[in-house]
Amino acid sequence: MLLRRIFRWVTVAVVAAAFGMGGVTAAQAADQPEVTYAGSVSDDLGILQINARSGADIRSITAHLVSYTSQTEVAKVGTEDFRLFSGTRQDGIWRTKEPLKLPEFGQYRIDVDVKDADGGHVLRQSAGDFAYYVVAQFGALTVDRTSIDRDHRDVQVEGTLYGRWPTRQVKPLAARRVDIDVDYWTQTTVTTDAQGHFTASVRLDAAAPIQAVFRMDGGTPAVLYGESETVQIGVDQVPTRFTSTVSATDVDFGQPVTLSVKVEQKTADGWVPLAGRSGGVLFGPDDAQTDLVGRFTTADDGTFTMDYTPWQGGYFQLALDTSDDPFLQAGIGTSDVVHVHRASKFTAFTATRSDTEQVHAEGLIDFPDGWTPAWIYVHIQYSPDGVNWSTLTTVEASWGGSGNDFAADLNQSGAGYYRAVFDADANFQSATSQTVFVPASA
Fold first, then answer.
1. Closest alpha carbon to 158 in 216, 217, 207, 231
2. Could you say which residues form the signal peptide (predicted)?
3. Structure letter (DSSP) for residue 220
């Protein structure tokens, strides 16, 4: 497609150069008259344009159009035929008031004679070329459908080819060849009827622009390149979906999870299994932080399973690869959230009665799987019988050099049992310390 576009751009550039599409660089007016450009107006070929400048006002412009074939003058255009189109009389662009009428189509040499108010004079031969041709133009290109699906890929194209004469007359071009391009490549060529009308059928395998293009075909009169506006054709894709389950939504760190998935496509008969399709699976807490789990290919019943050992909580993200089938929707899906609980354990706990009859409890808690909670809250609990427990206070443990330590002084006078408890959350397991019996005061 890129090469095709480059070819078209180069073609247009060559034609544009012949027609004088290039701009004129402004500069200080010279003391003597100077012709900087002469040629056709690119979008109005019958109009002659001359760029001239001088140190004084330009009073006279005469253009001579000379046939390259016979080397004879075919037209003389005088000052009265020009108007100042832009700029000033010392540095401006003059254009003919009306399109020129020449006996034959073709390209002509332009000789220009300019005089200014101070008597300055210049005759510049071969100041430029005048392109006198018919240019192809298209009416609106119509199609019978703006999107295709897997079972309906043919598109009917209809339009009309016109020619714009240098005299500005526009009329249909009969018996001329028109290329129908799909994605900038010619798929078929048709011939216009007596009214310039044409129809064609093209087949698409993906979303693509459609365009009618006239390329100089050797007919009479010679007609220059033209192209219609493009019509974008889309694709009606078949919807797809994932249905997934996980073997567990809460696992200990290091424990695998089995993902079971069914992939389906929607048809006139409802949702049916999508067999033999591939895709990929990610896992993570969000779209920006994921790990690759692996790739899959669905079985005949549209299913696949994967085992994965997550190192953090998150969910499976499922994506269907449809790069080889533009008629199939690139479906995505997500699983239930899986929470990964890392280990926690108390490495020390003591409770003793002090001289003031208070119970002093202290200990250490460790998290051996590599992560530590941002805040470590430890509940100090009491039970008179070692069975029924109540929380006396909650303290925060923090790093003390040899572990995460905590301590509390409790106003508990009777004998009983004491322990420390850490509650499970989305990322950590629960832990309970050893139980310590503290007798009543003497």
1. 231
2. 1-29
3. S
Please check whether residue 430 is in contact with residue 379, taking contact to mean a CB–CB distance below 8 angstroms.
Answer: no
Closest CA to 279 of 227, 250, 241: 241
Beta sheet of 73-77, edge-to-edge order: 73-77, 58-67, 106-116, 121-132, 34-41, 44-53, 91-96, 82-87
Provide the pLDDT confidence category of residue 9 given band limits of 50, 70 and 90.
Answer: very low
State the Cα–Cα distance between residues 73 and 243, nearest whole angstrom: 82
pTM of this prediction exceeds 0.85: no
CA distance 165 to 161: 13
* In the chain, domain spans: 18-131, 135-235, 240-340, 345-438
Query: And the tokens for 186?
Result: 């010619």
Which residue in this structure is represented by tokens 């779209």?
A: 287
Geometric angle at alpha carbon 361, from 360 and 364, rounded to 5°: 145
Task: Tell me the fold of 345-438.
Answer: Immunoglobulin-like (2.60.40)
- What would the pLDDT profile of 95-141 be if each residue is shown by its tens digit? 999 999 999 999 999 999 999 999 999 999 999 999 999 999 999 99
Local structure of residue 313 (DSSP, 8 states): -
Domain 240-340 has CATH 3.40.50.360: no
Max CA pair span of the chain = 137
Q: Note whether 63 and 79 are within 8 A (CB).
A: no
